[in-house]
């Protein structure tokens, strides 16, 4: 069984979309409403201004204002707030982490530096500098977007830092996940790929940083709890129920599909910012078909 010590961010952290107004500005009222909606529907931690929140096209001031809005929105709830502060610039990442900490976030998500491809020693120094700020850090290992894998030896070194408290594993390799869990048992691993959450939990991951939790948060919670309780038939049933939605929401670059889905199934949240564009009719049809399999939607 897992507990609060091994699941510092609960079972389900939702990589929250950023709502925009019709004119393309951050919609803070809608962000407030969405945060509270997610908190009431299976989300333990809100990840704000990550890639799903369109961090590449948010300014620093937009991010900081959004952190403040979400912290205030869930201040009376048990939901934690994790701020996306990592970039490919260590000094910038440190400065944003300091400011996010002053706002009152519970943790930060620090992505692998992308494009400049640092060595493993460079990665270790980068994440250590962010962790030295004093805010709990989830390290985000995503070689598909960053072009650099954080190797297990580097993760083991980082796990020795008191403020590095979890890793988001989007390596999409169950062998790597298994080896991470075996080599670093004290570092909680969160799935960074919705479709692999149950397989990763089965080899030792403790939860997920999810995109589809916008639409299926309670089902993800139920799946992980069933797996932890040893009810594999129920966990498998829920996995297969959600699998078409996992696939549909990533037919095109995220968060375009899930953002359009939220406008259809919840409330209007605006378009994505260029260079992203809205999803095709075919992608929306796949989402509709997937959502139709749920008892309620």
Please tell me about this protein's structure.
With 297 residues, this protein is of the alpha/beta class. The chain has one domain: TIM Barrel (Alpha-Beta Barrel), CATH 3.20.20. Helix content is 45%, strand content 12%. The protein has twelve helices and eight strands. It has helices at residues 28-39, 60-73, 90-103, 120-131, 143-146, 152-158, 174-183, 197-202, 213-228, 232-248, 256-265, 281-291; strands at 12-15, 45-48, 80-84, 107-111, 137-141, 164-169, 189-191, 207-210. It has an eight-stranded parallel barrel, surrounded by six helices. Helix 3 packs parallel to helix 4.
How would you describe the shape?
globular
- How many domains? The number is 1
Would you identify the regions where 5 or more consecutive residues have pLDDT less than 50?
none
Oligomer: single chain
CATH overall fold name: TIM Barrel
Which strand order spans the largest sheet, edge to edge or round the barrel? 1-2-3-4-5-6-7-8
Write the layout of secondary structure elements.
Blueprint: E1 12-15, H1 28-39, E2 45-48, H2 60-73, E3 80-84, H3 90-103, E4 107-111, H4 120-131, E5 137-141, H5 143-146, H6 152-158, E6 164-169, H7 174-183, E7 189-191, H8 197-202, E8 207-210, H9 213-228, H10 232-248, H11 256-265, H12 281-291
Parallel strand pairs: 1-2, 1-8, 2-3, 3-4, 4-5, 5-6, 6-7, 7-8
């Amino acid at each position: 069984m897992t507990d609060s010590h091994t699941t510092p961010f609960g079972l389900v952290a939702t990589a929250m979309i950023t709502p925009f107004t019709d004119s393309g500005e951050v919609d803070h009222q809608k962000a407030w409403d969405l945060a509270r909606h997610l908190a009431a529907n299976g989300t333990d931690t809100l990840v704000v201004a990550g890639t799903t929140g369109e961090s590449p096209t948010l300014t620093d001031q937009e991010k900081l204002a959004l952190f403040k809005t979400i912290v205030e929105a869930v201040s009376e709830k048990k939901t934690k707030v994790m701020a996306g502060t990592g970039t490919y610039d260590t000094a910038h990442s440190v400065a944003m982490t300091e400011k996010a900490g002053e706002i009152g976030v519970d943790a930060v998500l620090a992505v692998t530096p992308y494009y400049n491809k640092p060595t493993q020693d460079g990665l270790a120094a980068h994440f250590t500098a962010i962790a030295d700020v004093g805010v709990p850090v989830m390290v985000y290992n995503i070689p598909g977007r960053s072009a650099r894998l954080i190797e297990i030896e580097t993760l083991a070194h980082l796990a020795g830092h008191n403020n590095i408290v979890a890793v988001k594993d989007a390596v999409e390799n169950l062998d790597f996940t298994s080896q991470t869990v075996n080599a670093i048992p004290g570092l909680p691993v969160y799935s960074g790929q919705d479709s692999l959450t149950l397989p990763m939990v089965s080899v030792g991951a403790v939860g997920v940083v999810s995109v589809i939790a916008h639409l299926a948060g309670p089902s993800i919670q139920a799946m992980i709890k069933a797996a932890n309780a040893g009810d594999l038939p129920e966990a498998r049933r829920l996995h297969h129920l959600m699998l078409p939605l996992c696939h549909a929401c990533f037919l095109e670059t995220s968060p375009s599909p899930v953002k359009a889905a939220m406008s259809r199934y919840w409330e209007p949240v605006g378009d994505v910012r260029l260079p992203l564009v809205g999803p095709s009719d075919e992608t929306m049809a796949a989402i509709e078909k997937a959502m139709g399999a749920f008892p309620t939607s």
